[in-house]
Structures are given as C-alpha cells and as structure tokens.
Amino acid sequence: MKDGVNGVALAVFIFFFLLVTVMGFLAARWRKAENEHSLDEWGLGGRSFGTWITWFLLGGDLYTAYTFVAVPAAIYAAGAAGFFAVPYTILVYPLIFTFLPRLWSVSHKHGYVTTSDFVRGRFGSKGLSLAVALTGILATMPYIALQLVGIQAVLDVMGVGGGENTNWFIKDLPLLIAFGVLAAYTYSSGLRAPALIAFVKDTLIYIVIAVAIIYIPIKLGGFDDIFAKASEAYGQTNPATGAPRGALVPPEAGQWTYATLALGSALALFMYPHSITATLSSKSREVIRRNTTILPLYSLMLGLLALLGFMAIAAGIKVQNGQLAIPQLFETMFPDWFAGVAFAAIGIGALVPAAIMSIAAANLFTRNIYKDFIKPDATPEQETKVSKLVSLLVKVGALAFVLTMDKTVAINFQLLGGIWILQTFPALVGGLFTRWFHRWALLAGWAVGMLYGTVAAYGVASPTQKHFGGSSKEIPGIGEIGYIGLTAFVLNVVVTVVLTFVLRAVKAPDGVDETRPEDYTADAGDPGVQVELPPATAGSAH
Amino acid sequence: MSQAPEASREPVVTPMRVVIALCLIAPFVAMLWVGSYAKTDPAFIGIPFFYWYQMAWVLISTVLTMIAYKLWQRDQRARKEGAR
Questions:
Q1: What is the pLDDT confidence band of residue A365, given thresholds at 50, 70 and 90?
Q2: What are the TM regions of this chain, as residue ranges (chain B) (predicted)?
C-alpha cells in the first residue's frame, strides 16, 4: 500500500460521489406522480419502470459492491471454490423466469408491496406473514452493513481510512459522510434515487471491468502466466491449516459443496426483500420476463471480475485482509486517475443496493408489522412516513453495526442471512403455484429450517474462527459436504409436506385465500390491475 | 412450467411446453454436474477449462432463456386466440 492519500484517485472519487449525490436528490422529480404520498410511489417508484430501468436497477441491486470485492477476494484466497458465484447467477434466471411474473401479477392485482403481503393474502395467516417479514428484515440488515464494508475497503486503499492509530472519529468520518448523504436522498426520493444512480454505477463498473480484463493481463504477460503463477500459489501449504491454500479446479470432495452453494444461493436470491422491491417496481409482466434474458450480462461481468482474483495473485499483491486485494490491485496496476474511477465504481456500487435494501426492509416493517399489528387503520400517508423513518433507522443500525463490531460479525450474519432467507421459499414460491400447503405446516417448516440452519452454521469452525467459520457442513444421510442453507431448505420442505398431510387429515382450519387463479397471470392493462401509465405502454403480450 | 389456469380445453403438456421446460432445466443439469467440467484442459487463451466453460454457459443459458421466452409468448398468444 502506498503511504498517504492518493490525491488524484481521491479527487476523481469525490467528483463521482458528488455527481450521484446531486442525481439522488433530483431523482425525486423524475417521473413524478400526482399521489406522491403513497408507499407505491416512495417505495416502488410508482410501479412504473420499463425494461431498461429495471435492468439497471436489478443489476445495481443484485451485483453489489460487496460482491465485487468479495468474489475476487474468495478466488484470491482459495481459487476455484470462490467461482461458484458464476453458476449461481446462471441458475437464477431460468428459476425466476418461472415464478417472478406470477408474483408480479398477483401483487399488482392486490396492491402488494412486499412478499409478506402476498403470503398473508394467499394463506390468510398473519403469523406466517410476520415470520416472512422478520426473516427478510433480519437477512437484509447485515447485507446493508456489508455494503459499508465495501466502501471502507476502497477508502482504506485510497489512504483516507486512516491507520490503526488514528482517532476513531477521523477514521470513520468519510464513511459517516457517505452514509449521511445516502440516507438523506433515500429519504427524500425513495426508490427513484437508486434507480437513477444505478445508471452511473453500472456504466462505471462495465467500463472498469472492460479495461481491467484487457489491460491487466497485457501488463502481466497474458492469462497463461497469470494462471501458472496462481496455480503455484495455491499449491503452497497454508501454515494455519496444513493443507494447500486452494486449487484451480475443485477437487472431488469439493464438488458437492460447489454445486449446493450455487443452487442454494440461486434459490435464495429472489427471496431477498430488495430483489422483490426492484421487481415489483417494473411496469409490466413482460418487463420481468424480458429482463431474465438480459440480466445474465451481469453474470458474464461477474465471471470476468472473478478472474481479477487470479490477477491479484499474479501481480504479487499481498494483503492480510482479502477484501483489500482487488482495490489494491487497481491501485497498483492503474494510473491514479483511472484507479479513482474504479474506486468510485465500487463506492457507488455500495450506495445503490444499500438504498434499495433499506427501502425494502422499511416496506416490510411498515406493511407487515406496523400496519398488521400496531396500527391497522394507517393511511397511505402514514405508511409512507413510517417507511421513510424506518429506512433511516435501518441504515443507522447498519452503520452502528459496522463501526462498533468486528467486520467478521457482519460477514457471519450475512452468511446466516442467506440461510435464513432461503427458508421463506416454500411459503412464497410454493404459494405462487399451489394452495395445497397448510399455513401451519409452512410455519413449522420455516421454524425447523431456521433452527437447523442457525445451529449448523454455529457449529462450523475454521482456522480463524470457532463458530460461523463457513457455510458448508456434512449433509446428514449423504455424508458429503454441502451448503447448510440448502440442507435446511430440504428439511423445511419435508416438514411442510408431512405436516400438511397430517393437518389436512385432521381437517385443521385453512386461512382465507383472497387471490384467484386468474390473478397470477394478469398483466398491466387487464381489468382490475392498477395501471399508472397509458395502456399503450402496457407490455407486448396483447 | 405448469401455468395453464385460464386455459381452454387444450392439453396442459404440449410439445412446445416440453421444449420450454428443457430450455429452463438444461442449465441446472450442466452447472450442478460439477464433475463434468472440473478440469483444467483444454484451456482457452490461457484460461483453464473450468472457468471458460462456466462463462460460456452464461451465454448458452441466456440463449436458452430467450428461446423459452419467445416460445412462451407464442404459446400464450395461441391460447388466447384459441379461447376466443
């Protein structure tokens, strides 16, 4: 690491940061609707986004700064195992192609803002809906915290993070400023702010990746050299474990882990509240299906980005904290001004998802806790007001988390969050296709999955940590090492199915289903579907 | 893909729907069968097989999803007209 502050890079970074700040505040006026004091407006951008905005928004939302830092960092640390992010994002799209349009339709028809809204409407169970909402909020909080970790990594490498001996306030001041600004424009502009900023973020990211993937290999002597050096590095014994550091290709024993991680993560991704928020903000069913065919462009980018992990090894980057490997690679390889662009891409890449996540968590709280349990007669104005306040609270909470606790705590909770959120899959996706599952069985399945997942994750040790040392463990009955989240999910489904049979046999009372079969295929422009736009733009399915 | 709620008297499973299902299932088979691609050779411009093969699947699965999307649109249009 160079000593002191990298002035040029910092200036470029600040320029882009100011640019998106202005955009964030102006976004409130972008596509402004008449009834701005409703949750549909603030929390879903008026449900008006077309194919391209949705593409940028979802891309900006799912491929976060943390992803950009963590995926190559995992490759840097251990090689092939970190590449599971690529098959994971490949599998997401055929999967959501089958169920997301149905969720869009039923949500539009009934004005659902969150997944819990749907679960309550479908199964007539406030308890199940509360379970889904709490899981969503719990899983999102550490995710927001990790975005801050991403910004911190960039600030550290630029030299403004301060050393270990700096006063904590000076050290964290840049992060506090970045977060204050983020909180302010999310509060005033709602989902429109990240939607607009996502354009800048993704453009920067694509430019940086394109340059990095051509420029760095040329400087390092081609991919042959890069992989030869990486292979050599992985072969060396790690003193902490007594085993090789990693491998270029997963060994026989690691293949189950690789596949279950990819599948489990793919199933979990669209259970996250922020993915659903971005999805429901689109204006028609077709926008979503069309997006499943263009979103994979981001997966390609992620794959290329992952290769940067090998380049960091080949370039001789040595960092204690793997998270710093990629920012450090940029600073070493790029001229200062372009390093600034790259850092801005990561920094802004953290702001977009952090904004959407806080909005999504706030919507969950407002709709499924505040309105369902505290104030059932809340008006749309009150709902919006509560949501805005909670979005602030959520962010302050995440900030406190990052500043007061060790980074590994945020990472542990993020790991748990992934396991937890997957447990809402049977209620949500199951509910989209069938009403057969019994609401109590779903609740019991969820509880079993949550419990098993948490206990199993707690019991995983690593050389550096006694608990939460990783996300995979032996699968009971199979004996291979697999992703805990997926094992918990299978348990969850088994419990749900068995209990449904039992409950149906004893004729346990079913909840009231307020949805009808045709609601699941309704499109914008159909009677009864709220459309805020002229019918001329309402999808091409007609 | 078993969505045929408002569907008329037409069968739920048609050859076109089987093709759609295959397009959507293929990436799962290819990606979850890790043993089929866990090797370094043949390399492509110096990138081991394991990596370029998976990245190639990003493109393949995109094409498959696009085909599924087009076929599904055609299927739905045909059903709507058939229902009239």
A1: very high
A2: 18-38, 50-72
